[in-house]
Design goal:
By secondary structure, the protein is mainly beta. It contains 4 helices and 61 strands.
Length: 674
Amino acid sequence: MIKRFHAPHKTWILTTLLVAMLISSCFTYSPFGGIVSFAIGASDVVVDNETELREAVNNASFRGSTTIALNKDITLTDTALTIPANKDIILTSNKATGYYKLIGADEREVISIERGGALRLEGIIVTHVSGNYGNGVHIEYGGSFYLCSGKISDNIADSGTGVSNNGVFVMSGGEISGNIAYDGVGGGVANTGTFTMLGGEITNNKATRDGGGVNSGGVNRYGYFVMFGGKIYDNTASSNGGGVYIGYPGVFNMSGGEITGNTANRWGGGVYVLHPSTVELLGGVISGNTAEEYNDMYPDNIGQGSSTNLEDKTGLTAKESWTTKAAMSEPRWDMGVVNVNGKIYVIGGRPATPGFYSDNVGTNEVYDPKTDKWTTLASMPTPRESFTIFEYQNKIYCIGGVVRVADYGGFEMVGVDVTEVYDIASDKWSTMSTSFNVGGGTYVVNGQIFVLSYNQLYKYDVVADSWTNQRLPDGLFPFIFGAVVLDEKIFFIYLKSNVVYEYGNTFALSVYIYDTKTDKWSEGTTGFMGAYGLVVGTTVGIYAPQKIYVFGRHRETGPSWSESESFGTGTYVYDPVIGVWSTAMAPSASLEYLEHCHVVNVDDVLYVIGGSINEQYIPLGYHGTVGSELSDANSSFLTYKQVIVAIVLIVGVVVAGLWVYFRKRKTDSEISPR
């Protein structure tokens, strides 16, 4: 269940910048789907005093990041340390264990990040001496701050004492602790920008008003707080929201982490949400908080009380999982795959034999997830691979594609101008009179058929058997490797080239979005680097939250492509609502040659099929029943809207019947003899 209040605004302005900066900053990616920070290498500059520190920042290159290591505690005088526009600074400590301190001037923030500036903390303490006032870190609109390790502690200011964020703030590690907002909100963090928490701790902060740990949004300023991990605990608010306060108009999305042991003197010891802000609870734990009323959460229709695990309370699965299912009887690659009424049809392709020429096959099999069994059906008349496939009115259309033709000891790929249609009811094939040589991804949007083939996007009219060329953004093809349909939009996942990161330029996962209603394109967020051999699927929001899943392999070690590197499988997740990339549980099987496989959604459970692989992935947040009589989105299982319509119709019939009954009684009484 996703609990929503009125959503006044769902345009996530700044999150489109997050992950591109994130990857080039303080993260590497575990093959088990986790995100961990790494220790930086040799420093560019080692500084011993305030003058050297300010000079190092001012002289930093405008191209790439500059690492500045503190060689001792440094106290600032008069003004904050300013990170100017177009500078990417890393601050760390030049010591084997522990951190040096950067101590702010009285009544000044320690660090100020200007619009266009970027700062990473990789192991220092940002603080003030006892008795002095000032925020820890202030981020202007358009500035970016990454807390990877170290502390922001023991600062005192009116509001937003630890971190005052108007830009982009990403926290993957470190600690924000012991800060006091003596006359306002947000002892740990005050956010009116975008705050993404992946790890670290926010603890022992205090606010004399709201949001002891985090205050996000409010005073007609949007604040977007996305929590994937980390802990918010033992914070105190004299008013509401001991752990987290979401002001209007604010948005809070929680899919992991813990909010525990916080205290509010009034309402919402763990979380306080000011109506009509927006909250989505997809996972994580909110428990053991205290308040005068509503211990864990206000409003209490989301839940409050002791030891609340959101996955358990809302009916979501506590853990995602991978399960190996029955493989095809004939292992194949580059085949056509389509879901029809909860069953997966796999047609054509080529034998799964790497590195060798092999004839194409017309094999046609159907997989039933309820029984975990395959059934062989009538073969496709023209064996081929990489063709367009879709279902329309209980028939499966197979259009175009290529065949492999032997050529001087090898083979060449030859296009096929044929359209063949499989009738599921009769188990028979027919050939259409006209055709078009296309092959690639097919996306059905409200009965409209869109086909990505070579460097073009086409729209196909099944009734008229006609094709219309839709434009693609320049440079998008040939880097697309998959796409999915959500809410009348097609999300194209592609590899964006020439993305700058620590070792030079590389490719990064990126998103382009085509709105089929307006015929307009928009660019999404840039994500993970070093991924390849990828396939794409999606959950559509019926039994699991809407997410786009990219399964593939990635480089685990080394800055360049070399034989000494090792590779692992990974699951990369894109949230189409908030525009943020994250990772999920990696596949349990070795998915070599994954790029020749397909991902199919059945009841928001994903199946990766190809070769001898049939892996079932149950995503985090799934609340259906795997293997039950639940079918796909076209099932007879009534949706919420259908239930409402049914109730209205029933009430209407009852009212009409009563009206006829009483009218008849009145008429009878008028004509009956006295």
